[in-house]
């Protein structure tokens, strides 16, 4: 990626997360270009990162060796079809981080010869703790795959999927997943307050416990089930709580929730990718 121009269409939060991660990883700010319609946002990006900004998507597409489409899914078709003629001249490697737009739809809008990788990041990428799924057809070379993976690893882990249909599952797990944990932590915090802890104490205890549990799982080779059992003493308080969760069908509820999210992802992909 040395001396390659990495251009973004859209300068929102996810673009900022990637820009920050790439610069920390050694990408020169002068090699990054962002096309963003909002003047104030362009100025903020230029000051914050020392990068170049423009208000013209086509200009960014012409300059790009690598182009990252970081706009909302609802406007991606309009943006993609508008820059397609410019992409046909240089055919840069394109990454789309717009949720729900299938590879075939993107390829149709951008042009059939444009090398294209579909990516699904999640919001913890803004803290460098993201989990991204990547999909590309066999026509994408190993070098292009390596480049795409390097870009996404700037904000966390990056995992290749062999089947694009798995993107809908990944969306249900890691794309929507942070909200599930926030909901569970919120419920724990509210319960702790009802049981007598102060708001501040309940909040700090819940968040630190969640962080500690996640770190233990990440840094251990032990399965999640065995980690759970290791802190669940027979006849103790943890066993009583786990039993209450299981009696209320927690596992079945989680399965139902993730399946619903997966199914909605499939529906949205079909809707957003429809030809007019």
How do the strands and helices of this protein lay out in sequence?
Blueprint: E1 6-9, H1 13-24, E2 32-35, H2 39-49, E3 52-54, H3 57-63, E4 66-69, H4 73-90, E5 93-96, H5 103-110, E6 116-120, E7 130-135, H6 142-153, E8 156-160, H7 166-175, H8 177-194, H9 199-218, H10 224-230, H11 237-247, H12 250-272
Helix pairs in contact: 3-4, 7-12, 8-9
Low-confidence blocks of residues: none
CATH superfamily of the largest domain: NAD(P)-binding Rossmann-like Domain
* CA-CA gap between termini: 37 Å
**How would you describe the shape?**
elongated
Helicity range of the residues?
55-70%
Average of pLDDT:
95
What do you see in this structure?
With 276 residues, this protein is α/β, with parallel strands linked by helices. The chain folds into two domains: 6-170, NAD(P)-binding Rossmann-like Domain (Rossmann fold, 3-Layer(aba) Sandwich); 177-265, ProC C-terminal domain-like fold, CATH 1.10.3730.10. It contains twelve helices and eight strands. It has helices at 13-24, 39-49, 57-63, 73-90, 103-110, 142-153, 166-175, 177-194, 199-218, 224-230, 237-247, 250-272; strands at 6-9, 32-35, 52-54, 66-69, 93-96, 116-120, 130-135, 156-160. The protein has an eight-stranded mixed sheet with strand order 3-2-1-4-5-6-7-8, sandwiched between helices. Strand 2, helix 2 (39-49) and strand 3 form a beta-alpha-beta unit. Helix 3 crosses helix 4 (73-90) and helix 7 (166-175) crosses helix 12 (250-272). It is elongated, with a radius of gyration of 22 Å. The two termini are 37 Å apart. The mean pLDDT is 95.
């Amino acid at each position: 990626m040395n001396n390659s121009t990495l251009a973004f269409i859209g300068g929102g939060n996810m673009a900022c997360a990637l820009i920050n991660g790439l610069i920390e990883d050694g990408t020169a700010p002068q090699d990054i270009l962002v096309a963003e319609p909002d003047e104030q946002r362009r100025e903020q990006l230029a000051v914050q990162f020392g990068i170049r900004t423009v208000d013209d998507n086509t200009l960014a597409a012409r300059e790009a060796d690598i182009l990252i489409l970081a706009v909302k899914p609802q406007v991606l078709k309009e943006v993609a079809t508008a820059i397609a003629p410019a992409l046909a001249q240089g055919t840069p490697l394109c990454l789309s981080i717009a949720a729900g737009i299938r590879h075939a739809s993107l390829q149709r809008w951008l042009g059939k010869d444009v090398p294209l990788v579909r990516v699904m990041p999640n919001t913890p990428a803004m803290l460098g703790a993201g989990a991204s799924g990547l999909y590309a057809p066999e026509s994408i070379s190993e070098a292009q795959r390596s480049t795409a993976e390097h870009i996404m690893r700037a904000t966390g882990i990056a995992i290749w999927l062999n089947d694009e249909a798995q993107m809908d599952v990944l969306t249900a797990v890691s794309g929507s997943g942070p909200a599930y944990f926030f909901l569970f932590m919120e419920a724990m915090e509210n319960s702790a307050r009802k049981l007598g802890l102060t708001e501040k104490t309940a909040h700090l205890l819940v968040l630190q416990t969640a962080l500690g549990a996640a770190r233990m799982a990440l840094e251990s080779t032990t399965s999640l089930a065995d980690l759970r059992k290791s802190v669940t003493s027979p006849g103790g308080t943890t066993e009583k709580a786990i039993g209450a969760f299981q009696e209320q069908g927690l596992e079945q509820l989680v399965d139902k929730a993730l399946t619903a999210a997966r199914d909605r992802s499939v529906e949205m992909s079909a809707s957003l990718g429809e030809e007019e």
